[in-house]
């Protein structure tokens, strides 16, 4: 939110502050960050000027603390980019700085005046790791550049006020020349007017040198101003302009302008930024000659002869003589085309989902409100949800999940019409707004999307999307009711479609895991057989025995979510790699618990690395807190692993493996199961030999 600091830029610069506030609000939503702040340097402190308004808004006190912290001070001190996140702190020539636990990611840049003095800082901070912020850092720089351009414009406007005051004194003496003939006539040249200025003022100024100096300063200031300036007479004819005006209007030089000036104003077409053409009596000149004074009016300009288009910001006011009669107008312009492009890009990005390029929830909600009118009825809402995305993320990683999301977005776009609004509103959720579309037509569109999805694959996976539709026909009905109806229908469809998709996904996961490693496949099959043998000795029911054998086969399914380089590493694993390996039991649990028919074995897979003495993982369960089936899997898994050749270890002899089981009896393994295993299975195997 804005602090009451408009005076810092002058009383007339509220537009700048408002624009910066809007950009901060857009930026915080684009980055999904906690806050964006703009500070101003005051002595050795960074005083808060603006803080963003968002759903995760920080209060004023917190923002004040952030604005004056060591990070912003370091940006001011070093004039360098400052980045800090959970992993690293990068401050060129900076100190060893630390945030409190509530701030995890910080990125800040200095803001400078045109003469390189420091104005303050712009920074983004978050209470979580924000990878998007680090990837899209250029967006913050573009906002910084716009602010610096505004600061330059502010300085120029202050200079113009001083210049205008001097011009008014001069114009009082030149009003006859201003009203006589347009630009190009010899008697209205700046040279002649300067001469008249001298003659007129020789009576007033005792020092002739001072008079000459004043005229020269005025001429130099007018010619060298970076802002485009032109002066008209009372008839609206341009009688003087500076070089910046020639550049602004896209003329080669002043000679060309004088030649074509007779076609003014028909040489130009002026429009508001919404495309509406501005009639001549509402142009800056016409309004100034009516007595209006306006600042920062923005227009779209087109030269009819060259079709060049640009955007200008206009300040204009009338020129009055001492009796108050309007004798002309002064117009000051700046080309803001590039700035508006940058702002438009930022606004567009703030309405877009960064991953898929579709519209985001913010835009969807605004469009739904805008389109919820009688003229768009029937208005149909379609909700879509990707089946199995979480399962794929857990199994194959988020990179594969992101590919699935992008491909799904492409399929939905391909199946929709240009007028339809498509948005990604959640992790795996999409909304489609279909204006002037009845329910039957919407169903046809949905069926078309599903056909396109069935023909696409991401890796080994088909794209599966569950949809729900609802149509509003009566303008008085609440739109929320139709959203709920679409959501309910989508979830009903998802119940059946998602189950089939997840079952197929698990089959693909197991197939992929075994295709990567014959050793893994053989190990899983041996563990499954061993579990079946132990389960039979324990007199498990037929159903429980079947579940145990499946759990033994799938006990390492979670390894699909582990980096292959770690799984296949031949050297001993370091601490971080070992912790990564430990995650496979939890990943396996999430994968299997997503399908009802595997929900029972999911718990067994989760616990198969727990130890009898409570020193296992992931939950440190001990003794009979661990399910019986998980204890069986743990024993079978360990014995087969010891008896098998691995990339990081040689196979043990049977005697060595048996000795290890005896050693870990009552520590790693259930002592009763070890006794049963050694007596009934290992010895039986010896007898078979």
UniProtKB/TrEMBL annotation:
Alphabetical keyword list: Hydrolase
Record-annotated GGDEF domain positions: 377-508
GO molecular function, one term: hydrolase activity
Gene3D superfamilies, sorted: 3.30.70.270, Hypothetical protein af1432, PAS domain
Pfam families: GGDEF, HD_5, PAS_9
CDD domains: GGDEF, HDc, PAS
Residue stretches making up the PAC domain: 295-348
Domain called HD-GYP: residue spans: 498-689
InterPro entries xref list: GGDEF_dom, HD/PDEase_dom, HD_domain, HD_GYP_dom, HDIG_dom, Nucleotide_cyclase, PAC, PAS
Domain of life assignment: Bacteria
PANTHER family xref list: CYCLIC DI-GMP PHOSPHODIESTERASE PA4108, CYCLIC DI-GMP PHOSPHODIESTERASE PA4108-RELATED
Protein name: Diguanylate cyclase and metal dependent phosphohydrolase
Lineage: Bacteria, Bacillati, Bacillota, Clostridia, Eubacteriales
């Amino acid at each position: 939110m804005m602090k009451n600091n408009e005076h810092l830029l002058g009383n007339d610069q509220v537009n700048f502050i408002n624009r910066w506030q809007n950009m901060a609000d857009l930026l915080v939503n684009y980055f999904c960050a906690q806050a964006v702040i703009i500070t101003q340097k005051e002595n050795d402190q960074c005083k808060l000027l603006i803080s963003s308004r968002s759903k995760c808004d920080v209060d004023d006190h917190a923002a004040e603390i952030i604005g004056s912290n060591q990070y912003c001070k370091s940006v001011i001190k070093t004039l360098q980019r400052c980045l800090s996140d959970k992993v690293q702190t990068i401050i060129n020539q900076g100190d060893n700085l630390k945030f409190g636990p509530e701030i995890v990611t910080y990125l800040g840049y200095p803001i400078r005046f045109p003469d390189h003095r420091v104005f303050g800082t712009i920074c983004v901070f978050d209470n979580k790791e924000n990878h998007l912020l680090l990837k899209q850092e250029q967006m913050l720089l573009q906002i910084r550049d716009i602010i610096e351009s505004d600061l330059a414009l502010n300085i120029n406007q202050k200079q113009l006020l001083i210049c205008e005051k001097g011009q008014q004194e001069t114009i009082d003496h030149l009003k006859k020349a201003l009203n006589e003939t347009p630009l190009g006539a010899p008697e209205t040249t700046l040279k002649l007017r300067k001469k008249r200025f001298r003659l007129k003022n020789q009576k007033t100024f005792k020092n002739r040198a001072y008079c000459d100096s004043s005229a020269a300063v005025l001429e130099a200031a007018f010619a060298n101003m970076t802002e485009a300036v032109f002066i008209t007479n009372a008839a609206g004819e341009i009688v003087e302009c500076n070089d910046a005006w020639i550049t602004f209007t896209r003329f080669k030089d002043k000679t060309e302008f004088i030649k074509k000036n007779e076609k003014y104003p028909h040489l130009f077409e002026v429009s508001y930024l919404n495309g509406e053409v501005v009639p001549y009596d509402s142009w800056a000149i016409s309004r100034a000659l009516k007595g209006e004074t306006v600042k920062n009016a923005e227009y779209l300009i087109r030269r009819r002869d060259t079709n060049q288009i640009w955007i200008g910001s206009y300040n204009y006011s009338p020129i009055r003589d001492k009796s108050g009669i309007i004798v002309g107008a002064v117009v000051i312009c700046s080309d803001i085309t590039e700035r508006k492009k940058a702002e438009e890009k930022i606004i567009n990005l703030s309405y877009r989902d960064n991953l898929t390029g579709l519209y985001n929830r913010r835009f969807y909600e605004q469009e739904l409100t805008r389109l919820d009118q009688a003229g768009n009825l029937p208005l149909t809402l379609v909700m879509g949800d990707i089946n199995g995305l979480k399962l794929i993320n857990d199994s194959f990683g988020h990179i594969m999940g992101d590919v699935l999301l992008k491909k799904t977005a492409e399929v939905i776009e391909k199946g929709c019409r240009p007028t339809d609004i498509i948005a990604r509103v959640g992790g795996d959720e999409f909304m489609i707004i279909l204006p002037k579309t009845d329910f039957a037509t919407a169903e046809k569109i949905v069926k078309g999307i599903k056909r396109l999805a069935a023909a696409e694959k991401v890796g080994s996976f088909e794209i599966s999307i569950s949809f729900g539709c609802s149509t509003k026909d009566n303008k008085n009905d609440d739109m929320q009711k139709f959203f709920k109806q679409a959501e309910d229908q989508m979830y009903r469809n998802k119940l059946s479609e998602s189950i089939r998709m997840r079952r197929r996904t698990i089959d693909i996961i197991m197939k992929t895991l075994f295709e990567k490693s014959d050793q893994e496949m053989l190990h899983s099959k041996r563990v499954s057989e061993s579990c079946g043998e132990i389960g039979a000795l324990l007199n498990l029911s037929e159903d429980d025995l079947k579940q145990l054998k499946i759990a033994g086969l799938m006990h390492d399914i979670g390894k699909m979510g582990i980096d292959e380089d770690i799984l296949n590493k031949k050297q001993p694993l370091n601490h971080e790699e070992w912790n990564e390996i430990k995650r496979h039991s939890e990943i396996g649990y999430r994968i299997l618990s997503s399908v009802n028919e595997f929900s029972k074995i999911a718990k067994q897979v989760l616990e198969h690395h727990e130890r009898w003495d409570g020193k296992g993982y992931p939950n440190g369960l001990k003794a009979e807190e661990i399910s019986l089936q998980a204890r069986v899997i743990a024993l079978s898994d360990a014995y087969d692993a010891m008896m098998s050749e691995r990339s990081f270890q040689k196979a043990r002899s049977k005697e060595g493996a048996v000795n290890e089981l005896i050693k870990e009896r009552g520590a790693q393994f259930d002592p009763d199961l070890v006794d049963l295993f050694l007596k009934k299975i290992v010895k039986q195997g010896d007898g078979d030999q």
